[in-house]
Design brief:
The protein is an alpha/beta fold. About 35% of the residues lie in helices and about 15% in strands. It has 14 helices and 11 strands. The chain has helices spanning about 1-10, 20-35, 80-85, 135-140, 160-165, 200-210, 250-265, 285-300, 320-330, 335-345, 350-375, 400, 410-415, 445-454; strands at about 15-20, 50, 90-95, 145-150, 165-170, 190-195, 240, 270-275, 380-385, 420-425, 430-440. An 11-stranded mixed β-sheet has the order 1-3-2-4-6-5-10-11-9-7-8, with helices on both faces. α4 (about 135-140) packs parallel to α5 (about 160-165) and α8 packs across α11. The chain binds glutamine (GLN). Glutamine binds near residues 101, 104 and 291. InterPro entries: Amidase, Amidase_CS, Amidase_dom, AS_sf, GatA. Heterotrimer of A, B and C subunits. GO terms for molecular function: ATP binding; glutaminyl-tRNA synthase (glutamine-hydrolyzing) activity. Its EC number is 6.3.5.7. Keywords: ATP-binding, Ligase, Nucleotide-binding, Protein biosynthesis.
Length: about 450
């Protein structure tokens, strides 16, 4: 903890931490020392973590990197963070992210973006750590913490993990309680670990998950010992390679990464099978209807009354002006865009044409996966992202930004577990990741395949 605190103090330029909690960390570390001496040390005891700013942490600023939550200090602790702290984990501080987790580059944060610790060749250009969990990714990659929490609605754990060369796991929907995590798109959001390797992910996941009566979508299902499942033995397992993920214009190095990963699993004794997920091409448009729709509803609560920021009002302003001015000042441009798209697709005249159609597409995407798994596939291998980390400010067009999520959103739409593992470097020395997608609730199996790929 002491070493991490001093690294954090020296790494301000990375913009990874937006709020440091050294007093809490020091107290928690001292308490962990006592537990270790007494021989009562759970898995996470004394492990210094960074916590994504989307998690409510009691009496500690929790702003979801938004201006509208300025000054908000929750009176409660999220289920995930309280489980981690009960198991002895240490909180170093809160981590940067895209505002309300909407983005793929960390550039929509009210705090300004975090920076990727990696550089392209000999260039000085600052690169994105990915998003939305960009601060978590940068902090783990730069050794500012041993691991971090992330959340993933459409790729926000897996894409940043791939961009900085770490491991990121999005569990099955319902595996981890969403209680106390600021909601973006409730039917897609899921928290997970961002760690240095697969073993750490297995250890941290066990403490993060479990049934929570406070989240009605959290599943009452046994939590296995994920670490014990890491044998590396994948002989006879069937790995699906979906042809729809081989996109036009895919960079040759991503193709090669994918082929190398496939060969590695084959060498380890897996059976490689070409599969088809025919509705893949509709996933991104369906996601960018459903996620904004749910976001517009979730974000209606930020009204200048209940939380955080309230605009200064002029003489004669009524409650409508208060709402309008507060929301216009408090939300950044990407969040405003999502709220407008979301209210539009949910409006009476367009609900069937957009929202309902997107929901039907979602069901078809889920069915594609169900059929493949019913056919004996144990895990699916794909690239994690269509490119390596791009330069900050390079990708300013929203549609271009959304295209980054092309390989990751299907997993959220289908509620499946997905993991991104570091798989090599591109020609300019930047990390690239491969994604493995597993059957629902079979994170143990998924982690074991990922372990074989590591
Ligand atoms: N980049 C996607 C979006 O902007 C995913 C974000 C996430 O997973 N939180 O919606």
């Amino acid at each position: 903890t002491a070493a991490c605190l001093s690294s954090i103090a020296d790494a301000g330029a990375l913009g990874a931490f937006v709020h440091n909690t050294p007093e809490i960390a020091t107290d928690q570390a001292a308490a962990a020392d006592v537990r270790i001496k007494l021989g009562d040390a759970p898995d996470m005891c004394g492990i210094p973590l960074g916590i994504k700013d989307l998690f409510c942490t009691k009496d500690v600023p929790s702003q979801a990197a938004s201006g509208i939550l300025e000054g908000f200090k929750p009176q409660y602790e999220s289920t995930v963070t309280s489980q981690l702290f009960d198991a002895g984990a240490v909180m170093l501080g809160k981590l940067n992210m895209d505002e309300f987790a909407m983005g793929s580059s960390n550039e929509t944060s009210v705090y300004g973006n975090a920076v990727n610790p990696w550089r392209r060749g000999n260039e000085d250009t600052a690169l994105t750590p990915g998003g939305s969990s960009g601060g978590s990714a940068a902090a783990v990659a730069a050794d500012l913490c041993l691991a971090a929490t992330g959340t993933d609605t459409g790729g926000s754990i897996r894409q940043p993990a791939a961009f900085v060369g770490i491991t990121g796991l999005k569990p099955t929907y319902g595996r981890v309680s969403r209680w106390g995590i600021v909601a973006f798109a409730s039917s897609l959001d899921q928290a997970g670990p961002m760690t240095k390797d697969v073993r750490d992910a297995a250890i941290m996941l066990r403490t993060m998950c479990g049934h929570d009566p406070k989240d009605s979508t959290s599943a009452d299902i046994a939590v296995p010992d994920f670490e014990a499942a890491l044998t590396g033995d994948i002989k006879g397992k069937t790995i699906g390679i979906p042809k729809e993920y081989r996109m036009d214009g895919m960079p040759a190095e991503i193709e090669k990464l994918w082929a190398d990963g496939t060969a590695m699993l084959k060498d380890a004794g897996a059976i490689i099978k070409d599969i088809t997920l025919p509705h893949t091409k509709y996933a991104l448009p369906a996601y960018y209807v459903i996620a904004p729709a749910e976001a517009s509803s979730n974000l209606a609560r930020y009204d200048g009354v209940r939380f955080g920021h309230r605009a200064k009002l002029a003489q004669g302003d009524g409650i409508t002006e208060m709402y309008e001015k507060t929301r216009a000042e408090g939300f950044g441009p990407e969040v405003q865009r999502r709220v407008m798209v979301g209210t539009y697709v949910l409006s009476a005249g367009f609900y069937d044409a957009y929202y309902n159609r997107a929901r039907r597409v979602r069901a078809l995407i889920k069915r594609d996966f169900d059929e493949v798994f019913a056919d004996g596939v144990d895990a699916i291998l794909t690239p994690a992202t269509p490119s390596a980390a791009f330069g900050l400010g390079e990708n300013m067009d929203p549609i271009q930004m959304y295209l980054n999520d092309v390989f990751t959103v299907t997993v959220n739409l289908a509620g499946l577990p997905g993991i991104s593992v570091p798989a090599g470097l591109d020609a300019q020395g930047l990390p690239l990741g491969l994604q493995l997608i597993g059957r629902p609730w079979e994170e143990a199996e998924l982690l074991n395949v990922a372990y074989a790929l590591e």
